[in-house]
């Protein structure tokens, strides 16, 4: 007998060629227009925030993996994506120390303490952002009206959601929805470039990397909740379209809420998750002290993911029934 | 072989082979190896040195049926634990050039008038697999005759429909009587050039099935075309109500029963490089893979893979002495460069596996539970329903050995429930 | 020697919030500053030591079936003493600790020591156990409170440590509830990392 030097394994013996890096690298690619828009608007300071966030996230991930004795896997790009998403939510002149603190805490506490990529119950970028948001002495930097006071970009430099919060539907009459959609509004470096974010998100959906259920239902949730609010009090609440084209809703629907490990994977779970995120966003916009509620809505709903993932037809386990070998009539078939 | 659907939620499209492939006959092997599933050497009724005839039952009295497919002298009797964690009895036979046939397999001249019991007994005696449950008396609700291959890179079934249309019709009539099935379905690939002429509409329902994996798997056919469960039986009991018979076996049955011959020759498709041509060979059951490869002038690359029964749910052999059985459809040789390597990475929870799973299992959770030996959770999530199609492995971006994990969990759960 | 061990074990081996992971409610809630932590810790030392002594002394008198209720009565007595004393003499501390002083009654550490130790051991050993565990508890609270105060406000025991520039832009996240959890978790991880080789 000839010794055949063969490889053995279980199936399948083919592979589609999908890689872990598909999602992260394509996300980076999809966000390039938003980055470009941010840099065009806010100049080098935007590049500084983005660079700081990405670099500190990746360094934090590598250091933490080394410390925990795990293989260093920053090349999978997930830390870079977290850093980038965090940066895109921040105003262009956020001080570097804030960016570093947020991305390091997001990556270490928000991700690697739970076991790294795939095991984090919350999106690291959102954890980092939330840390900044609830740190009171720093919150002034996140207030876009205050933070971007030195910029004049040729359009109203008032943060639309802050105006809505302060003076209701009357105050936002000056904002043109189409202009807002084109990104002519103050806000996060990338989050305010609504049309660029939408384009990138559609690319992700078309590539099959982001399932369409969450983004669509997120936007649907925003529309439903804001319509309800408007029905009750049309003087204090904005119309649904305004909600969709302002603040972090677009980036939240397409990039923040679709983080793999902090979103459900079954269809009805995703639908419920998206709807709840969207509705919670509007609720927080209307009733919380913060002008925008996307991040907290996503964080809150992420905690319900294990529950939402149970929204599926349960699998019926088929067990064998004993069949008499000599019998004439036999109880064949199934039992559950 | 691409998986690039618009919404990423559609199952991957892995097409079946569409063209006809001519069949080339292989000479008899000098030594044939016969495998008997779920049996031990003690169940074998012949001894080393005995001469056996083609079609002879090698099982000891009362142990069932283990049919010799060649004429010759028994050289070895052994046992083997297969890749499916089941014990096999192995009998090696040195073959003689000329077959002498066992007399207990008799021809049935008139299939229409013979009694169903007689036909069933002869089908089983002639060595056709898959009828154990029917013999035990399980009810067959639906009979599905499949002209689809189970796997890509296999070209066994579709042509037979054209070549033996008459036999197919006779065979369906015969099996309908034998099984008492209320519904009969003939599944043919949607792109097949051959329609099922000769089969009348009141005899069977003819369904065009999309020729993409896993639509040809018996479990999927039973579920999608028959609306039931595949009939399966083992020592623990019987499950299902749908019998799936491949058209190759059906045509084989008709000719074997007419002539009173055992089922000993099997068409096997060989493929030795990606994108290469397929070759069909007619081999005697028991022929080792090495002989088939030698005849086709294929060399096994060191470090490569030898896969029997297709690239998706087939099994990789550790030796080229692996014999062909009555259910071997294809041989695939992979170069080391083509061999897919699994990675020991954690699940990233992307959900692709759950989206493609034809049994709608939560593969992402099952993989993790199995990895950490939490088998009661696996049982809760229905790991026993896994049909081991391999699609989850195919799409996994983390390149996790999901099928390995699931098959392991399935085995443990099965043993635990059997032990209760 | 062995009696002395009853005291020292509370300082590391059975350090309440980290090793026993008991009494986390006050640990997280009152450690916004080192002063609060110290105040809470001293209150717990007092209640724990005296309740241990009394429970130990009465351990043969208290019927088994009503022991928990009896322990609670004993503990509550000392808690009321502490509450009144702080209210009278350390009003700012009383203000800061607020509801958490009365809540010492249901602090798991105290009830746990009464049930697990004092009800089975002599008066001296129980007193030392109470002192030791209480000291450990105080130490943990001071460390946690100090860290949070230092990072979150730039002060320590209300003494300005960091520069005015830091204090006006301090990382007040650490003073919030999530900051408390993260700080406790990080300290717990460091403790486990330090003592992991010796325990295995």
Report on the architecture of this protein.
Chain A has 336 residues and is mainly α. Chain A has helices at 20-30, 32-42, 44-67, 78-89, 96-108, 124-134, 139-142, 144-147, 160-171, 177-181, 194-206, 213-232, 240-244, 249-256, 267-287, 294-302, 305-308. Chain A has one domain (21-305): Orthogonal Bundle (Ammonium transporter fold), CATH 1.10.3430. Chain A is built from 17 helices and no strands. Chain B has 4 domains: 29-95, OB fold (Dihydrolipoamide Acetyltransferase, E2P) (Beta Barrel), CATH 2.40.50; 116-259, Rossmann fold (3-Layer(aba) Sandwich), CATH 3.40.50; 264-334, Phosphatidylinositol 3-kinase Catalytic Subunit, Chain A, domain 1 (Ubiquitin-like (UB roll)), CATH 3.10.20; 352-419, no CATH class. Chain B has 12 helices and 18 strands. In chain B, strand 16 (305-308) and strand 17 (315-316) form a beta hairpin. The longest helix of chain B is centred in the last third of the chain and has 18 residues, at 402-419. The radius of gyration of chain B is 21 Å and the shape is globular. Chain C has one domain (2-10, 28-193). In chain C, 72% of the residues lie in helices and 2% in strands. Chain C contains 10 helices and 2 strands. Chain C has helices spanning 2-8, 16-20, 24-30, 34-57, 67-89, 91-97, 108-118, 123-153, 164-168, 177-199; strands at 155-156, 159-160. In chain C, a hairpin with a 2-residue loop joins strand 1 and strand 2 (159-160). The two termini of chain C are 25 Å apart. The model of chain C has no long low-confidence stretch (mean pLDDT 87). The chains are: A mainly alpha (336), B alpha/beta (420), C mainly alpha (200). At the A-B interface, helix 1 of A face strand 11, strand 12, strand 16, strand 17 and helix 8 of B.
**Which class best fits the helix and strand makeup of chain A?**
mainly alpha
Put simply, the count of helices of chain C is 10
**Beta-strand proportion of chain C:** under 5%
* Span between termini of chain A: 48 Å
Residue windows where pLDDT falls under 50 for at least 5 positions of chain A? 324-336
Helical residue percent band of chain A:
55-70%
Assembly classification: heterotrimer
The tally of strands of chain A reads: 0
- The CATH class designation of chain A is Mainly Alpha
Helix amount of chain C? over 70%
Biggest sheet of chain A, open or closed, and with what strands and sense?
A: none
SSE order of chain A: HHHHHHHHHHHHHHHHH
Please tell me what the overall shape of chain A is.
globular
Uncertain runs of chain C are none
Largest sheet of chain C, order of strands side by side? 1-2
Order of helices and strands of chain C: HHHHHHHHEEHH
Calculate the mean pLDDT score of chain A and round it. 87
Q: Indicate how many domains the architecture of chain C comprises.
A: 1
